[in-house]
Amino acid sequence: MKRRDFIIRTAGATAASLSYSKLYADINKEIESTADQTHYDVIVLGVGSMGSSTCYHLSKKGYKVLGLEQFDIPHEQGSHSGQSRLIRKAYGETSDYVPLLERAYENWKTLESETGSQVYYKTGIVYFGAANDPFLATVKQSSSKYNIEVNTLTSEECNHKYPQFKLPSEFQRLEEPDAGLLTPERSILLFVQQAILKGAVIRTKEKVLEWKRENGTVTVKTNRGTYQANKLVITAGPWAGKMIPGLAPKLKITRQALAWVKPKKWDNFILGKFPCWILENNEYDFYGFPILPVGNFGGPLGLKLALHYPGGEITDPDAVNRNTKESDENVLIQFLNQFMPDGYENTLVMKTCLYTNSPDQNFILDYLPGFDKDVIIATGFSGHGFKFASVIGEVMADLAINGSTHMPIDFLNAQRFGS
Ligand SMILES: Cc1cc2nc3c(=O)[nH]c(=O)nc-3n(C[C@H](O)[C@H](O)[C@H](O)COP(=O)(O)OP(=O)(O)OC[C@H]3O[C@@H](n4cnc5c(N)ncnc54)[C@H](O)[C@@H]3O)c2cc1C
């Protein structure tokens, strides 16, 4: 299909008229047909969560962009697969992220209005944890510092509103109504669709083998060609350590297991009746989502939950053991039996996904030291980055084009771990 036909066929499409599989098929056909060029304003290495948004923001501003992706878009080998991601604003990690989140929320809304497709579902999130839990304390701190609605529920109120949970009476129960879930695969496809419509060249199944910078020009060599650009943005997710000199020892790639289960009482856990949730239990941090109807969301089918465990099994992104273990499953079943008695009948699907952990679990957004302002990196998302994708792309575009950003990212600089 020619670019013009693609634009005509997709420009007026709405969420209802453009199915996920058709969007996927059309974008991949268009990608195959993009014309050969060799010099760009910016090359984006890795078109996953952050790279797709970077291509979108750059091409929207009129820059000539090449996005290079080693697999299909989207795919299940990296960090963005699995149907849903939590989005929340009263941030429990540190309140420093809240200004970025405020912008991320705005940018998700813009993507939705530009495409007529929904990516954000406001389900609310309930947080559970012990009275002295540090994560919940920071949620409250972020809420009061930035005036974000977070309600404290008594155990009676919580039992009435969310009878699916069975919790120790001494647990705190907090509720953030303006939180919910994002659909990662659909978001990435929409970013890429919009980037293509604005003229970006996106090439899939094209692996970057090496890059170098000489005399202010970046040269990128792939398994299919060689390209040049004024700037390079590296958004390589779990492969960042292989693409960014000196960073590998600082990034720990861990394998995460997640499950979709059949609950005993299906209807009690569906979207509209059941919220997203996070439960902090000693050092363990579990989270989950309502059952999403397959008609709108595709699969997998079931009640999704996982353990957020940055200290998990370390792996090489090119050699991940995708077989889930009995121990991965058992920890989730035990959790459900303890805290959601009607939540488990049997397991439907288990999958794996990868975290790219920085030493302090905070992102790294910066110019790559030693390359002036020609190479920009976004990495170390440590299992909590997706909700920010809509603003990270904007920040990367600012850094590539303007040489600075007005967004407060100093706390995420690359120098903080030493050289
Ligand atoms: C199980 C799980 C649950 C999560 N839950 C949440 C959540 O609820 N909320 C939240 O906000 N975040 C969550 N996250 C984290 C979030 O999904 C990640 O932080 C985010 O997806 C990271 O985006 P990325 O662009 O760095 O990586 P990716 O999306 O993996 O993109 C990197 C891309 O670069 C490509 N690439 C790499 N090297 C090359 C090369 N040499 N040549 C060409 N292409 C290359 C890869 O193929 C890939 O497509 C979760 C992550 C996991 C694994």
Task: Give a quick summary of the entry.
The chain has eleven helices and 19 strands.
Assembly status: single chain
The percent range for helix content is 25-40%
N-to-C order of helices and strands: HHEHEEHEEHEHEEHEEEEHEEEHEHEEEH
Shape: globular
Q: What is the mean pLDDT?
A: 93
Strand content: 25-35%
What is the architecture of the largest domain at the second tier of CATH? 3-Layer(bba) Sandwich
Total strands = 19
Count of runs of 4 or more consecutive helical residues: 11
Instruction: Report the biggest beta sheet as strand number plus sense, adding barrel if it closes.
Output: 8 strands, mixed
Bound molecules: flavin-adenine dinucleotide
The helix-and-strand class reads alpha+beta
Give your account of this protein's structure:
The protein is α+β, with helices and mostly antiparallel strands. The chain folds into two domains: 3-80 and 185-248 and 362-417, FAD/NAD(P)-binding domain (3-Layer(bba) Sandwich), CATH 3.50.50; 122-182 and 252-357, D-Amino Acid Oxidase, Chain A, domain 2, CATH 3.30.9.10. The chain is 29% helix and 25% strand. It is built from eleven helices and 19 strands. The chain has helices at residues 3-11, 20-33, 49-60, 98-115, 134-146, 155-161, 184-197, 240-243, 294-297, 326-339, 389-402, and strands at 39-45, 65-68, 85-87, 120-121, 125-129, 151-152, 172-176, 180-182, 201-203, 208-214, 217-222, 226-234, 252-262, 276-281, 284-288, 303-308, 346-357, 364-367, 375-379. The strands form three sheets. Strands 1, 2, 9, 10, 11, 12, 18 and 19 form an eight-stranded mixed sheet that branches. The protein has an eight-stranded mixed sheet with strand order 6-7-5-14-15-16-13-17, with helices on one face. Strand 1, helix 3 (49-60) and strand 2 (65-68) form a beta-alpha-beta unit. The longest helix is centred in the first third of the chain and has 18 residues, at 98-115. The chain starts with a helix and ends in a 17-residue tail after the last helix. Residues 1-17 have low confidence and may be disordered. It binds flavin-adenine dinucleotide.
